[in-house]
Hints:
The chain has helices spanning 39-55, 96-103, 113-124, 183-187, 189-200, 206-211, 218-242, 258-271, 291-298, 302-307; strands at 3-9, 13-20, 25-32, 64-71, 75-76, 81-82, 94-95, 108-112, 133-138, 142-148, 151-153, 246-250, 281-284.
Amino acid sequence: MEYAIGVDIGGTKIAVAVVEQSGKITSKTAFPMDLSKSPDEVMDEIIQVIQKAIQGQAGKETDLLGIGVGVPGPLDTRTGVVHSPPNLPSWIDVPVKEMLAAAFAVPVLIENDANAAALAEKWVGAGKDSLNFTYLTISTGIGAGIVANGRLLSGSRGNAGEIGHTVMDPSYGLCSCGQIGCLDLIASGRAIAKNGSEIIGQKLTTKAVFELYGYGHEELDRYIDHVFWALGAASVSLVNMLDPEKIIVGGGVSQMGNLLYQHMECYIQTYALNPAGRRTKVVPAELSEHAGVIGAAALCFSTFALETNV
């Protein structure tokens, strides 16, 4: 059976998976992103993991259609070069596509990670029955993948949907992108852990910060309410600009569950410009942490790629 390799490169972890044309993952390996290592060293690790994944498909090496990669932007999907993502600051002009193409005699395709996850949700996830939706990933950083009229809108170079670097509140200071007060600084997983830890006075995970919400710590409660406001306001911007049927929320912060979705949906119901837009649903992603590798692999399946205008 033909298959593809999906690679999801993130700010905190990397995943490599063997994905069948049905969207089923047959094997997957994940390991931490070590920011102390050079991009060359990390790419060497990724190549080794891919080689092991292919070797695990004994007798099926010729069935490999290609390698798809999802990586944070900014990047150029045409050349496959990654241009210094805020959460990967040492990855300056890294030729990811070229490096993988030199190691493997199969096509290599690269896409923004949020766009890749949107492809996965369109293919076999929460967006499979929708022609118009926005996938909002709230993880180490925040980004959006946009599907309009059944096609992925990735922009001229693959960088559409970088909503995490929309200015929301200048009081949060300087963002790594150079702007003041970006959404990423308020509501990303990294920001929630950092800001919550500073408020409480001890190192906390994002999950631990949310677990303290509503238990009498007024400053923390005000901060989490501000997170909900920021994500709600960002969602209204997406609704007003893109008119989606639904917003699909993925990434680690989405695991906080219904409280998050309810706050976002309530804000949309109150502030979306179009009365119909106020009925836009906010739903959880169905593929959880697998969306990145499944979407990356989807780039290699030509029939699906054509349907989504990759």
